[in-house]
Design brief:
Bound molecules: iron/sulfur cluster
Distance between the termini: 32 Å
Shape: globular
Number of domains: 1
Strand order of the largest sheet: 1-2-3
Structural class: alpha+beta
């Protein structure tokens, strides 16, 4: 499968409540991310990470399970984010 990183650098996927970063060169394809939150992490899709597709706390939890350190997150904001969809 091809990737869109253009190298081994770390890419950012900014969401409203959390920003997820991914370094393709570190990924071991353990699929912990896709198993944990398939609505957020889906390698068949572009972009393959959609930080807003689940609660930021859940995204952070699944990112924390990544065994290689390829996934990281930054900037978890509160739930009171204005304009946040309720569905
Ligand atoms: S959990 Fe980490 S190592 Fe596993 S597929 Fe996802 S990004 Fe890659």
């Amino acid at each position: 499968m091809s990737d869109t990183t253009g190298g081994a650098g770390r890419r950012s996927y900014a969401g409203r409540s959390i920003t997820v970063t991914f370094e393709a060169g570190r990924c071991r394809h353990a699929a912990e991310c896709g198993r944990g939150l398939p609505e957020v992490f889906d390698t068949a899709r572009r972009p393959w990470i959609r930080p807003d597709a689940a609660d930021a706390g859940r995204v952070a939890e699944v990112v924390g399970r990544c065994p290689s350190g390829a996934l990281r997150y930054e900037g978890v904001h509160g739930e009171e984010e204005p304009g946040r969809p309720s569905s």
